[in-house]
Specification:
Chain A: It is a multi-pass membrane protein. Chain A: GO terms for molecular function: serine C-palmitoyltransferase activity. Chain A: Belongs to the SPTSS family. SPTSSB subfamily. Chain A: Its main location: endoplasmic reticulum. The complex is a heterodimer of chains A (80) and B (516). Chain A has 2 helices and no strands. In chain B, the strands form 5 sheets. Chain B has a 7-stranded mixed β-sheet, with helices on both faces. In chain B, strands 2-3-15 form a 3-stranded mixed β-sheet, with helices on one face. In chain B, strands 14-17-16 form a 3-stranded antiparallel β-sheet, covered by helices on one side. Chain B is built from 17 helices and 17 strands. Chain B is an alpha/beta fold. Classes of the chains: A mainly alpha (80), B alpha/beta (516). The interface between A and B is medium-sized, with 21 and 25 residues.
Chain lengths: 80, 516
Amino acid sequence: MDVRSLKNYLYWLFCQFELITCSYLMEPWEKLLFYTFNITVLVTALYAAYSFVPGHISTAFQLFLHLFGNQRESAVSVVK
Amino acid sequence: INHIVHNGGLYKRPFNEAFEETPMLVAVLTYVGYGVLTLFGYLRDFMRQWKIEKCQNATEREEQKDFVPLYQDFENFYNRNLYMRIRDSWNRPICSVPGAKVDMMERVSHDYNWTFTYTGRVIKDIINMGSYNYLGFAQKAGTCQEAAAKVLSQYGAGVCSTRQEMGNLDKHEELEKLVARFLGVESAMAYGMGFATNSMNIPALVGKGCLILSDELNHASLVLGARLSGATIRIFKHNNMQSLEKLLKDAIVHGQPRTRRPWKKILILVEGIYSMEGSIVRLPEVIALKKKYKSYLYLDEAHSIGALGPSGRGVVDYFGLSPEDVDVMMGTFTKSFGAAGGYIGGKKELIDYLRTYSHSAVYATSLSPPVVEQIITSMKCIMGEDGTTVGKARVQQLAENTRYFRRRLKEMGFIIYGNEDSPVVPLMLYMPAKIGAFGREMLKRNIGVVVVGFPATPIIESRARFCLSAAHTKEMLDTVSVSSCLPFAHAFYKQIQLLPSFGRLIQCLVHKLVEP
């Protein structure tokens, strides 16, 4: 029962996508072109996220550590 | 905007009119859709020019290719790339009387709406939500039809002349006296075509040196008549009395543009019900302004005559005003009376002048006798002079249908424009793909609707327009409103407005996901 309503819901979402981007009105070869372009862009974006985002996050994390680490050390030295 | 009703106020009943703002998300998504279609339009035009694809639309001949290009403007681009894709929702051929249910000839297209072929099948009993059949007089059986058939056997179908020559029948005289009595004016004159009534009589009433103040959303016939007259035209915002008053003040204070002389005549052009918006004119305020600034009022009651008012006498009756305040009352017989033609009513001097000087009276063929008899019988029925209460029952049924249908659609969450009491119900669709999808899906469910897109409405505000009728039963209205909630539910629009935060929206979607 849950699977059926999930399938209906996904079909509804797909219909909304088709209507909003007007792929409902396109001829089959236009739809193929449009979906290929969309999926390519999406896959490229996901791959870029997968390969570069951890690197960026670790660099940013290191930068923050460097900044706050320096401060803590200097504060500690003053107290001493 | 609700006007508070109090003693001495202009409005004797609440005036509820609403034009909801387009939700921001919907506007953005509509532009996205149009953007995608434009890109594909450019691609297809490129392919057509480089002969990769067969060119099926109109182009210039080879010899004319070096001249000024004819088909490069936006209208033609829209026509061949956007309109062609959804063209099957318009010009559908019907083959029975357009009553509450209608028969339609089925047609298919094998090359994406460039050509159509008839399959030969007739789709029967489609619920008709598109005809202007407000009081249900479009019938093929009944008193109106019998009277018209009798007159057809007496007078024939053709008149073969204009009003001023040999085309003035005693039926026309009878009709005009009846129309004058119906409206409560001194005299009236009937013409063969409603469009021609407006476009041919406004030039007879105003000329150069006069000022026309016309509403933003006036019908093409009024615009054409105003332009043909040669008068100066100024536009005020739709149903906006502050804008109208400002224009009137400027006109009186400054006069004509170069010479500063006073205007010969100031004519205000308004309509009773605006058919694309479903809004009703603010007639008490217009009349108050007209009296204050000494101008004339031309009221086009094409959609409101017969459809509004406790006794069906139009927008003047609806507001409880006196017909003497409106200088020129124009209307058509096409909508509520189930016939064809138009009329103008007013003071006797005005109508006598129009009998001589109107282009339509001099050059256009007069009304056909069976059509005149249909108008006479239906008008007598509405007034109650045929001895039954059928007319009154129809007017009340239309008012009930209007209130019920509008309430049902609003409860379902659609955005509906216009006044609470107008039988024209525009349901907003906004996105171009939904125009085509709505028309087709409703036809699959045996309901015929009229969807309206770009040239008739602003580009993002496309809509489906329902025209209610006294002939619709409650079951039909229930079927239509339930079917409107199609699998691609438009009720999403209202939810966006009611949920201010995006988080609530996600919560709502997740709730939809897990409900059994």
